[in-house]
Specification:
Structural class: mainly alpha
Order of helices and strands: HHH
Radius of gyration: 41 Å
Largest sheet: none
Number of helices: 3
Strand content: under 5%
């Protein structure tokens, strides 16, 4: 029972704040010279649960946009760096291919020499 009363009181206070804020905003819009403190108006607005939910959602959206922008920038620069590294490694890859080809050629020559030596050893033993 006490919990329900407390909840109803809070709801009534929220509605009163909303009404007073609405009256002050209407007075500002109409140009009436009510003594309205902008800070007090902001505080009253922020006490409103609907405004709090909206502000929280807006803050979350802003955070998501910032994270998305940062990730996009990271991916963009990562792509650029990868392209530059690839360009820089192209001459090294060609040199490596040439060295690999020369190693294969030397291996073939070595195998031929070993076969020739084995044949000469076989002829010399007979």
């Amino acid at each position: 029972m006490k919990g329900k009363r407390k909840a109803l009181r809070q709801e009534v206070q929220g509605l009163q704040q909303t009404l007073s804020t609405g009256k002050e905003l209407a007075a500002l819009a109409a140009g009436h010279s009510l003594k309205v403190d902008p800070k007090a108006l902001a505080v009253q607005l922020l006490k409103n649960p609907k405004v709090q939910r909206t502000a929280t959602a807006a803050g979350g959206l802003l955070a998501a946009v910032i994270v998305f922008g940062t990730v996009s920038q990271y991916k963009f620069y990562q792509t650029i760096v990868a392209r530059e590294v690839k360009k820089g490694l192209k001459p090294i890859h060609s040199q490596l291919d040439e060295l690999q080809a020369s190693v294969e050629e030397l291996n073939r020559q070595c195998e031929q020499l070993q076969k020739t030596l084995e044949q000469q050893k076989g002829v010399g033993r007979k």
